[in-house]
Amino acid sequence: MDLKENSAPSRLAENKEVDPPSPTNRVDDQVLVFRLANRKMFPPGNERPDRAVFSLSSEDKKQTPPTLSVWDAAQTTLAEAQAHHDTTHSAFAFNVGEARRVSEDRVDVLREPVGGPGGDGHCGVTGLNRPPSAPKSIYRAMKLHLADISFRYP
Amino acid sequence: MDANIGTIVTVAVATVLIVSGGTSEANTLKIDSDRVPGLGSFSQADRSSTALPMANRSSKDWAKFLVEICESSLSKGRMAEWVVKDLQELVAGARVHSASFGDENVLLTWDFGRYHFDFEIDGSKDIEWFYFDRETGESDEGRTWYSGSVYRRQLVRLQALLDAPAIHSGVVESFSIAFGRETPSLMSL
Known about the structure:
The structure holds two protein chains of two kinds.
Chain A (H helix, E strand, L loop, with lengths): L9 H5 L17 E6 L30 E5 L5 H8 L4 E6 H7 L5 E4 L10 E5 L9 H13 L2 E3 L1
Antiparallel strand pairs in A: 1-2, 1-3, 2-5, 3-6, 4-5
Chain B lengths: L2 E7 L3 E8 L2 E8 L28 H14 L1 H17 L7 E4 L4 E6 L3 E7 L5 E7 L5 E5 L4 H14 L7 H11 L3 H5 L2
Antiparallel strand pairs in B: 1-2, 2-3, 4-5, 5-6, 6-7, 7-8
Helix pairs in contact in B: 1-2
């Protein structure tokens, strides 16, 4: 199973009605979001993921802006997210405010609702795509920090 | 003293050439072609200080996970094995703490709480490495496994994370040959 299944839902990319990012769809700091990850990316037994889980897939990079698909834990259950992606992947979670803090506000989390049960909880993490001119070390360190604040969910 | 290290990899044999001052020494690492690629060199870390909890990972889960990596990308699995074997030959105790397979790369991770070190294998012969000190924010990174200068830097970075008493005398000799006068400072890390 490849990461395309864990990318932002394809229906999101097809939906031209999705609002562009704006301050109004920013997720509150106190929100806990989770992301599904296959066992190759998030091996069984690991309590937290490696920084690789914050790397955008080819599909993720096609989004405007490029985003990593996550779910608001208060609005979407793990089962609903799994059903949406048609997987049984496990998940890791992190607090939105912490993500902003450790990334020095490079990273943001925006609401990107999709259809289906629990779809209102779908969100996208922005700021993970490294511009060609930016040093890799900054983004590697940032993703390491994000991995550090993440934990196996639930 | 200039130091150059090159690694020549064939299907069955990986050879590490250590060259210094016009002399050379070769350490030959045999790769068992009958073994499932990528399985042999990986093992669970037994360091209690590792920041990535390994206690809950059963050997069955670990083995299954590695098989999945190799099935996904034979070249990356083989490369990951060679990297680990080279490191284990040169730096005692350099067992991988964690490995994961992303969209494009295999990531081998060593994590000691304050310090982090990883190799990123993208399937080409180039390998990128990354070092990070969580306390000071110092980072370092490099590319190309086969480049002598980068090779030395990444080993020094990884060595800094490992316990000095774990260094085998043979490894120290290898570093002496490769890095000459820089070896004492390496040993003091």
